[in-house]
Amino acid sequence: MDLETLVAFLVDNAGPWISEQRDRHLETSESLPDTTRAALRGYFEPETLDRARIGSTSVIENPPFYSQFEAAGQAIPLDFSVWAGITFGDVILLSDAGESGAMPHSVVFHEMVHLVQFRILGIDEFARRYVTALAWNRFQYMTIPLETMAFDLQDRFERSDGRPFPAEVEIRRRLDATPPTPAREDRLSTS
Ligand SMILES: [Zn+2]
Prior knowledge:
Structural class: alpha+beta
Largest sheet: 4 strands, mixed
Strand order of the largest sheet: 1-2-4-3
Shape: globular
Helix content: 40-55%
Radius of gyration: 17 Å
Number of helices: 9
Order of helices and strands: HEHHEHEEHHHHH
Bound molecules: zinc ion
Oligomer: single chain
Number of strands: 4
């Protein structure tokens, strides 16, 4: 699969997978626990904390469409089974299998950043930006702008020592400031 075909395949499949996972895990998810709400108050708007749902799983499953990569003898783009958490729209899913070593509430904070990104962009646009950047950056997921924003704000959260900063305002500001994903030709000419 050449890069262009790969990006198109991922864009076509990622959004529907996220929507399907969101609906599936919504049934068994709950509102944020009071202790989590208290820890995240001031970083996120009250309505955002109200809207968030959280659930748990023994392990985050990889998407069914990964079978295409396996059949072709290619590496899968991202192995979700080792992740500590993932967000599908407004549903955060925490894994018993993932080891984060992060401070309490830090993983949920990171996932809340994605929840706000989903809210602003919608599931399909989030998926498009995520997988396009992932493929262009040779599957180094730490370089995906939606992830660098989440890790950067998570780091600030850990250093904020319980003194909130308006993370949600910052996410909106940064997404506004993010230029549209450049055309592939532009990328190739500068790399
Ligand atoms: Zn993330």
